[in-house]
Design a protein that fits this description.
- The protein is built from 15 helices and 5 strands.
- The chain has a 5-stranded parallel sheet, covered by helices on one side.
- Helix 5 links the parallel strand 3 and strand 4.
- Helix 11 packs antiparallel against helix 15 and helix 14 runs antiparallel to helix 15.
């Protein structure tokens, strides 16, 4: 399968390419900016591709129409939503409309593909409505569910789908990807955006649009966290979490802190951030990077910033006990 347009994610692409046949229902999971929509478009092309050889060929009429967003048999959930509803959790009426549409045969391709963005915002009624077509839908119908938090989907939904989780790319891959798309931008701005993105390319591009700037509040909090780790002070870590809680951080601010923390730890391991490198051993920095990824995934669910900060401080204290310089 030709998935070269998706950056990084070598293991995921190998897994998909090795499949004899794409499953009829897939969950594509990852945070905002992880490439879910890019992968969904490539898989939609693969489902409807009429070219010869490897799919998607990217050249046939069906592939071109998917790329342009005008293929009649690749149907986004937004088709069944009003403009106002597109920013709200998905409700049962939209899913019922999608389900009814699924029983109308494809217009020109052999398959009909439904792209369900924000699938993890469906309420239980909507998910149960979708379950019926996942179980008993026509053979030509395929469903791509995009989710930041796949655990918000009912077990009955997850059990009938094959899940593919996207992964962050390396710092070098992120810089190369940004450079290819923005060859005229300052290399330092590219590096800042890549480092602050935590390896998520959509986020890297958004940061580049802001000239790679990092939220000053986030940067200051990370410096304080580093100093607490460097001072090997569990009390300082707890005081740090209290400042976050009292500072009334928003979920968006807390969600940005985790990829930035992962980027700090990875840069330190690569020798690019001496202050962080001095704070923890390589094993401790690796553990901290993993912790940041876990926190980022948790923030995709319904976790409050205050609880997240307390968890981060307690977990960092455990890392400090196990892995200090």
């Amino acid at each position: 399968m030709n998935l070269s347009a998706l950056a990084g994610n070598g293991a995921l692409k190998a897994q998909l390419s090795a499949a004899q046949r794409l499953p009829h229902a897939l969950i594509l999971s990852g945070p905002a900016g992880s490439g879910k929509r890019t992968l969904a478009a490539l898989l939609a092309q693969a489902f409807v591709c009429a070219g010869e050889g490897e799919r998607p060929c990217g050249r046939c009429r069906d592939c071109r129409l998917v790329r342009e967003g005008t293929h009649p048999d690749v149907v986004p959930i937004e088709r069944f939503l009003t403009t106002e509803e597109r920013e709200r959790p998905l409700k049962v009426d939209a899913v019922r409309a999608l389900r009814a549409d699924a029983y109308i045969r494809p217009n020109q391709a052999a398959r009909k593909v439904y792209l369900i963005a924000r699938a993890d915002t469906m309420n239980p009624s909507a998910q149960n409505a979708l379950l019926k077509v996942l179980e008993d839908g026509p053979d030509y119908a395929a469903f791509l569910l995009l989710a930041e938090n796949p655990l918000a989907l009912l077990e009955t939904i997850r059990s009938r789908c094959v899940r593919y989780a996207l992964s962050p790319v390396s710092g070098e891959e992120a810089i190369g990807w940004l450079r290819a798309r923005h060859p005229d931008r300052d290399p330092e701005a590219l590096a800042r955006a890549a480092a602050a993105s935590g390896g998520w390319l959509g986020r890297a591009e958004a940061l580049l649009e802001e000239d790679g700037a990092e939220d000053p509040r986030c940067a200051a909090a990370l410096d304080e966290l580093r100093d607490a780790l460097a001072g090997r002070s569990e009390r300082a870590l707890m005081e740090w979490s209290v400042r976050i809680q009292n500072g009334k951080w928003t979920r968006e601010q807390m969600a940005r802190l985790y990829p930035a923390l992962a980027a700090r730890a990875c840069d330190a391991l690569a020798g690019r951030d001496a202050p962080w490198r001095a704070a923890l051993s390589p094993a401790g920095l690796s553990a901290l990077a993993r912790l940041a990824r876990e926190g980022e995934r948790a923030m995709a669910g319904n976790v409050s910033p205050a609880h997240s900060a307390g968890w981060l401080a307690a977990s960092a204290a455990e890392i400090l006990r196990r892995h200090h310089n």
